[in-house]
């Protein structure tokens, strides 16, 4: 379900971009600018540096370079900056209350009967949030019925399917346009994984789900309802949860420490993970102010009081400091990984499709050929068989004739030899008769006829 609700918020200061914008005019910003100027002047005097870059300072009142940050802010705001937060955790852990508290608003929630769902249901709503003329298009994605079923080993599937589906939608958009900023972005930029404050370490369902999710989106574990446990219990719970996360190789989102401007605060926040938060939709008057709080017989827990819980730190980390980084990481890390795998898969699917299409065409052609030339084909085959039989017969006859001829040739040769011998004998006899008539008178016998 997608609904569009326009919310004009009291000041939450959620855009890091406004932070850039205000930096140039704030007093601490002015000090920083002075320091940067001195640094630049020093570099300009350095002969080696001066060889490469010459620093020029346009005369006052300036030429407009300083408006670059505002140009960037304007473009981002005009392009409809979208930010999508997923809330995951068992029914009743405090997902809806936390998102309301984070944005100081009241979002749609009809999850009263989510514990009766037969499977996990992912419900997404869209809202337009406006703060000091900066608007964002916020997606609130709540996973209902999580941990409510008897069979839980596949509880993560609808969640993973939803995340993949949004990546697919973005991929489709991206393939259609050349301008990345114009793509409608419904990808999950951060998943707040709410963990019960009581228990030892993480439950099996938490581990299985986190393992499935950490490579798909920026996963931030959060201990909900931290007002229900003592400070010591909270420290123990944090330690055990982090040990389970590390032992199971789950790479949760870490706030970046490569940007010097926010490195210190991010490093401090990383050390406090998982944040233990309190949330509420109730308001209590404390002193002169009305604050979001939980009222107990023994006292009041203020949601935005830094000494009561990590709630303010969580909000600052998500909105004021790292919102852009969460979006960038979603794009450069999780989406890129998904995209390359998906494109490979698409390539294989296309090749398989082409291959089966070729097979189909081939079998169609064979069938058509058979229908058209089937009878002729059989006739040709019969003729071929007959020819083969005839050629075998002729071959046999040829061999028999050849043998017969050979025999006749041998007999003829023998007759010739015999004849020659007789001729010789007669010749000798004739000569003998001549001699007998004239000299010896011996009686010569003729040789026997040799067969
Ligand atoms: N003690 C305590 N109760 C909370 C906190 N946050 C929410 N709750 C309560 O827990 C109940 C369930 O909260 P809800 O936000 O509807 O949970 P969801 O089902 O996860 O969306 C409500 O009665 C809330 O008032 C908290 O930080 N501390
Ligand atoms: Mg809810």
From TrEMBL:
The family line of this record is: Belongs to the TRAFAC class TrmE-Era-EngA-EngB-Septin-like GTPase superfamily. Septin GTPase family.
Please state every residue range assigned to the domain named Septin-type G.
Answer: 79-345
The protein's matches in CDD domains, at most eight in alphabetical order, are given as:
CDC_Septin
A molecular function (GO) held by this record is:
GTP binding
SUPFAM superfamilies in UniProt? P-loop containing nucleoside triphosphate hydrolases (SSF52540)
Q: Which organism is it from?
A: Medioppia subpectinata
Q: What is this protein called?
A: Septin
Biased composition range(s): Basic and acidic residues: 432-443
What keywords tag this UniProt record?
A: Coiled coil, GTP-binding, Nucleotide-binding
Q: Which residues form a coiled coil?
A: 366-422
The annotated region (Disordered) lies at: 25-44, 432-451
Q: Does the keyword Ribonucleoprotein apply?
A: no
Q: Does the keyword Metal-binding apply?
A: no
């Amino acid at each position: 379900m997608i609904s569009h609700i326009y919310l004009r918020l009291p000041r939450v200061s959620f855009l890091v971009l406004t932070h850039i914008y205000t930096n140039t005019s704030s007093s601490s910003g002015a000090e920083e600018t002075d320091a940067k100027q001195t640094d630049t002047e020093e570099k300009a005097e350095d002969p080696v540096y001066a060889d490469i870059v010459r620093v020029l300072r346009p005369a006052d009142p300036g030429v407009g370079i300083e408006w670059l940050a505002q140009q960037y802010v304007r473009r981002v705001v005009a392009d409809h900056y979208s930010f999508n937060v997923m809330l995951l955790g068992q029914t009743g852990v405090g997902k809806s209350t936390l998102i309301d508290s984070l944005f100081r608003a009241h979002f749609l929630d009809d999850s009263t009967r989510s514990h009766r769902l037969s499977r996990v249901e992912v419900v997404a709503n869209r809202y337009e949030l406006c703060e000091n003329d900066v608007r964002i298009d916020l997606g609130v994605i709540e996973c209902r019925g999580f941990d409510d079923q008897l069979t839980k080993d596949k509880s993560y599937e609808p969640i993973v399917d939803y995340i993949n589906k949004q990546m697919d939608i973005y991929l489709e958009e991206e393939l259609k346009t050349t301008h990345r900023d114009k793509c409608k972005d419904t990808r999950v930029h951060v998943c707040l994984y709410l963990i019960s404050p009581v228990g030892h370490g993480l439950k099996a369902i938490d581990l299985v789900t986190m393992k499935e999710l950490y490579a798909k989106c920026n996963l931030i574990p959060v201990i909900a309802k931290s007002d229900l446990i003592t400070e010591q219990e909270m420290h123990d719970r944090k330690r055990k949860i982090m040990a389970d996360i590390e032992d199971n190789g789950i790479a949760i989102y870490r706030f970046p420490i490569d940007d010097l401007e926010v490195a210190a605060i991010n490093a401090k926040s990383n050390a406090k993970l998982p944040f233990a938060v309190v949330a509420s939709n109730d308001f209590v008057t404390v002193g002169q102010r009305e604050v979001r709080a939980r009222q107990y017989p023994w006292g009041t827990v203020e949601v935005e009081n830094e000494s009561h819980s990590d709630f303010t730190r969580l909000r600052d980390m998500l909105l004021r400091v790292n919102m852009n980084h969460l979006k960038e990481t979603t794009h450069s890390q999780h989406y890129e990984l998904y995209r390359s795998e998906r494109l490979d898969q698409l390539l294989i699917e296309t090749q398989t499709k082409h291959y089966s299409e070729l097979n189909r065409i081939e079998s169609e052609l064979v069938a058509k050929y058979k229908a058209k030339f089937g009878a002729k084909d059989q006739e040709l085959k019969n003729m071929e068989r007959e020819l083969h039989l005839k050629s075998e017969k002729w071959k046999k006859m040829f061999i028999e004739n050849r043998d017969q001829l050979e025999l006749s040739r041998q007999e003829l040769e023998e007759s010739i030899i015999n004849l020659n011998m007789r001729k010789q004998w007669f010749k000798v006899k004739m000569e003998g008769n001549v001699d007998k008539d004239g000299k010896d008178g011996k009686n010569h016998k003729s040789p026997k006829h040799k067969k």
